[in-house]
Each structure stands twice: as C-alpha cells, then as structure tokens.
Amino acid sequence: MTARLAVAVALVAGGVFLLVQAWGIPGGSRPVPLVICGAWVLLAAAHLAQTVREHGARPESGAGREPLLIVAVLVGYAILLDPVGYLVSTAVAFLLVARILGSRSLPRDAVVAVLLSAGVYLAFTQLLSIRLPQGVLPL
Amino acid sequence: MNDLVAGFGTVLQPMNLLFAAIGVTLGTLVGVLPGIGPALTIALLLPVTFTFSDPVGAFIMFAGIYYGAMYGGSTTSILLNTPGESASVATAMEGHLMARRGRARAALATAAIGSFVAGTISTVLLTFVAEPVGRLAATFQAGDYFALTALAMVSVTALVGRSTVRGLLSLSLGLFVGLIGLDAMTGQPRFTFGVPLLSDGVDVTIVIVGLFAIGEVLFCAANVRRGDDTMQPLERSGFRTGWLSAGDWRRSWRPWLRGTALGFPFGALPAGGAEAPTFLSYTIEKRLAERSGGGEFGRGAIEGVAGPEAANNASFSGVLVPLLTLGLPTSATAAVMLAAFQIFNVQPGPQLFQTSGPLVWALIASLYLGNVLLLVLNLPLIQLWVKVLLVPRPLLYAGILVFATVAVYALNGSLFEVLVAYAIGVAGYFMRRHDFPVAPAVLGVILGPMMETQLRRALVVADGDFLTVVSKPSTAAILIVAGASLAVPYLPKIVARLRRRPVPAGRLAFGDED
Fold this sequence. Notes:
The structure holds 2 protein chains of 2 kinds.
Chain A: H1 3-23, H2 31-53, H3 66-84, H4 86-100, H5 106-127
Chain B: H1 2-11, H2 14-31, H3 38-45, H4 55-80, H5 89-100, H6 104-137, H7 142-159, H8 164-179, E1 181-182, E2 189-190, H9 204-222, H10 246-268, H11 275-291, H12 303-326, H13 332-343, H14 352-355, H15 357-378, H16 382-388, H17 393-412, H18 415-433, H19 439-461, H20 466-470, H21 473-485, H22 491-498
Antiparallel strand pairs in B: 1-2
C-alpha cells in the first residue's frame, strides 16, 4: 500500500471515529459536530475513491527518515524542557536537528546553538519578562 | 477625517515611531527567512507585544511587522524562489526569472515600490470604506454572519489548491480542531478525550505555528537530500543606482495600479484571501503583454512582479475591512491579527469604531507610516537582508523550530501546548506531502466556532427552525454565492462544454501551496 493510499484510508477511519464521538455529545452541543464529522466522512470516502482510481497514475515521491527523527527530537525536547532547563535542552535540540538535516560542522553548530539559546533566553526573560524553565543551570 | 488626523497624532509620537521602526525591522528579518510568510511572522512575534500594556503601541508594531514580513517574503521569493505563502507564488514566478537574468535589483525595487503604492492607495480606500461598511454591518443579524463565515471559508477553499475534495477535507479538519474544547454556549466538553488541558480549545496561534513553521520544516527535512536551491546574487551596483530604469518605471506603474484595483476589492469581500487577486493580476498582465506583442513573460517580465505584488499588498488592506467591521478574518494573516486584538481585549465588529475609535484610527495611521518606513529603511538595507539568506539551511530550519517552540511556550507557559503544536506540525507535514492546501484548515479553525455561535444564535431567534434562518433573503443570497463559488474552478470546463469546444484539462487553481 502506498503512503497516499494509507493517508486516504486513515482519513476515513479517523472521520468515522470522530463521528462516533460526536454522536455521544449530549444536547444542543451535538448537531454542529455531527454535521462537520459527517461531512468529513463523506469527503474522506470521496477522496479514497479518487485515490484508488488514480492509483499509480500520479508519481509518488518517497521521503527519507529525517522528519521522523526530527519529531523524535522535538518530543524529547518538550519533555526535557522543564526538568533540564531551557538553555541546555534548546542547545542540544538545535544541535541534533542541524545534524539530522545534514550539517557536518560540529564546532560551528555548537557555537551557534549556545549563542542562540542564550540569546533567546535573555531576550525572553530580561526584555519580555516571560519566564522560561531554569533547570539544572544555576542562573 | 479628524479621527484620522488624531490617529496620526498618536502614531507620530517618538515612542510609537520607534515601535513602528522596530516592527518593520523585525518583520523583515523574520519574513525574509525562506518559507516563512506574514501570518507565521506575526504568530512568531506575538510574544514581543505581551509586554505592552497599551494596545496602541502593540498595533503600531504589528502594522510594521506585517509590512516588513511582506517585503521580506517578496525578497525571498525573488532571490530564492521559495514563496512563504501562496499569495507570493505569483510574484516568485517572474521575479525569480528576472533574478536569474541578473535583474534582481529591478525586481526587488518594483516589488517594494509597488507594495508602497498599493499599500498607500488601498489604505486610503480603507479609510473611507471602513466606517460606512461598519454601519452596514450593524444591520446584519446572526443568520447573515453565519452565511458570511460560510462564504469566506468555502470561497477560499474553492480557490486554492488543485483538488476541491482535498481542499474541503482540509477545511473540515480545521473545523474539527475548532470544535475541540468546551462548547461556548452550554459548557459541554467536546472532543477533549478526557484531557482537561484541551478544554480551553486549541489556540489559533498554535495552529498557525504548527502548520506553517513545524509542518514546513518537517516537509523541507524530507526533501533535504534532494539538491539545494541556490540563491541568485544581487548584481553589483552603486548605492542608489541600478534600481529602476526609466523603462522599468514606465512598464511598472500601470501593473501597480491594476494590481491595486484587483487586490483591494477582492480582499474587502468576505470571500477573501490574497491568492485569487495575485493570480488574476498575473494572468491579466501576461495577457496584456502578449497582446501588445511578445512581452517577456516566461523570461522574467517586470510586469509579472509589479502587478501581483501590488495586488498582494492591496488585498491586505482590503482584508482589514471585514476584519475590523465584521470581526471576520478571511486570511491566515487576518486570523493572527484577530488573535492579537483579543490579547488586548479588543473585539473587532460593527461596534469597534464606537468603542475603540482612537485605536482603530491609530492602526490605520500606522499602516500609512509602516509603508513609508518600509521604503525608507528597507530598500537601502537590502544588502543586509540578503545576508540572512546565506544562513546554512540546517541551522536555519533548526532555528525556526527553536523560535516556533518558544513562541508557543510563551503564550501560556504550557508544554502541553508545545506538544499540540508539534502534533499539528506533523499533520501539516502530511498535508504538504499529499497536496492538501493548508489555508482552508486555518480558516476552519478560526471561523468554525464563529459560524456555530452565530448559527445557534439565529436558531434561538427562529425557534429552532433552520429553514427560517436560511430563507431570510440576505442570508439565502450569501449562501447561494458560497455554493456557487465551489463551481468557479470548473468554469473554463463548463464554458467550453456549453460552447461545444474542446474541454480543457484540469481545473483553475490559484496557488498550489498553502
């Protein structure tokens, strides 16, 4: 099964799931979600039919695993932001993403990572008075 | 008129001038980054205005940020051919060709001066149109608002992207996201899946940062191994020479005016979006050039930059008409502006001119100012902005992710919202990969809840009878236009069939991307 077909099937399945959820909403809050989710299911079905008909007609481009790796880094970043602190987690996440995207000059990236996270941290905490997690660094 | 003069009085205070200058500079700096359009620029820079206690300064800065972002975006489109949003796609086509022929400076100048001309004229139009439309809007009832939101969503969906089905699916995805949270009328939780953090719903800023920033970076990451786009260099020239020759001026001024004439009305209609007028302008300029013998289209025609860029800028002032008078955002940029208004507890709508008159006139005055500042600051500084484009791609994308994360985190200090933004980014990645337009999803998120509230309000008045609501003449008329707009992309086919001519392949599309 191609990625395009998988997306089309997932859209139908997701729509049906949400339609069932919408059915369970009580009272006056129900009609609009029902209409929207119903429309979703119908459109997704039409889209699936279209995809099956066009199957193989449009060339499909493969994707590398870079997006998946970046999402993994991002999720780790969000989880560690609080315990580890803004400066360290941001610098590490920046380095990892740059590396995944093909940057091969570690010293340069490290300098940029530290300067960028420090710059953002100072700008937000000092200029904008928005609190960012301090974490392990004694600041 | 006196109101506008008072508005200028506010804006021209030294502190506010400084805010406008900072806004233009920040906007250009962020907008010039490849793949970042004005909507995302404003969303990323929202935290900057959190420190303002007084909305006037914040809005002056926003106007600057907007114009800066717009100008930065056209710079990137011309030099790199990476338009940040679909409204710059038309500019990128001929503009990039001009840059490749060594005419980058002329392309940038006609875009900047054209934006200035269009921005100034359309702001004048806005000044005169806004209040009368506001008075008209005051007569609208809930049913009409319901129909207007439907029109805005459906028409934009019909006009962007290559497939109506995928556009509508994208719209229903956005409408669904708009449903998440407590029902505004009954307090009933919907689609929160037992997660209390979802009960406030998903902020439109999070959706925009997720779709436009994170989705875009993931999409670029997927293609990172496949060759690199190279920047077209600016040709060497003296400080002030080499911008526009007399011939360029002669070829540019008419497209500027025509672009403005298309952009403003299209933007002002609640059928909104800047895509349709920019592509129409491109098509018209191309046809006119062909008629007058040849023309340079396909090889970098200055008309093809001047017209669409003017249309793009004029349509923004146009979009402010429904935004300010009806509270109805019809583009992603307008949606973020509305979010900014709401941060300061300013509610756009028919009453805005009465309740916040000085603020609105200051905003309009700052549009004039932003335009002037842009020309004065940016045209001479172009060498500096071009340097931003030299940042290596891996660092640039990693940096966009850092800024996107901190912008979302700064909204409420919630890591849960950061994760939501990432999840929306993943959805945006799949939408890009499989040709789903992004703009309808954004409009669905922002307009969906408005549409539902107005519909239910109208139903209460009509004793729950849906037919009574939609059979009111004005409501019915707007809804019919909305339905008809879905047929617009197929018009060439329909016309051809009626005339018994060969049916053209494909459908009309304004902008293939978000």
